[in-house]
Every structure is written in C-alpha cells, then in structure tokens.
Amino acid sequence: SDFLVARDNEQVVAFCHFGPTYREIAPTEIELYRIYVRPNYWRIGIGGRLLEMMEARLIAQNIDQYFCYVHSDNAIGKNFYLRRHFEHLPEYDRDNEYCLIKHLL
Length: 105
Known about the structure:
Layout: E1 2-8, E2 11-20, E3 30-37, H1 46-60, E4 65-71, H2 75-83, E5 87-88, E6 97-103
Antiparallel strand pairs: 1-2, 2-3, 4-6, 5-6
C-alpha cells in the first residue's frame, strides 16, 4: 500500500492511504482505504490535491479505476467524492456505507 502526506511546517495535516483491496468482493483491484484532512485545513484544496497525486501514480501504472467506501451519514464526504466524478455503485454498498468508483482513463 501507499501513503501520501501533506504537511504544514513539518506537521502532518492530511494523508491519503491506498493500495490493493483486501475485500473478497470488490468492483476493482485498487482501493482508497482512507483520506483524512484536519478540519482546520478543509476547503483549501488539500484533499483534492492528494487525490490528484494518487491518481497520477495509478495512471502511471496503467490502473484505470479505483474505489472507496464512505459512511452513508457522511454528507461532506459523499459530496467531496461526487464533485470529483466518482460514481455510486449501489450493488457494492455495505451496512451504512456507500461504494463509490472513479474511472481514470
């Protein structure tokens, strides 16, 4: 798996963790396990930039899609992904979690 980290004066303010899925049933082989941005760093583009960097790495490896889960009550998270052209895959939803996929190529 891989980590991407954003820092502000040596303090970690955001990270992205992704790699091969460990799930038996999944829409694709690569999963975004988690992305986190400290709340006081929201809405300045850090999360989006981390996704762009991750996607550039995946494209360089000829990986054309990846997926993630977001809690069904997490409206901010769902909107974050949907604004970035993720699509909902209801057939892969789990208890209280939406499955979202992003096509890269």
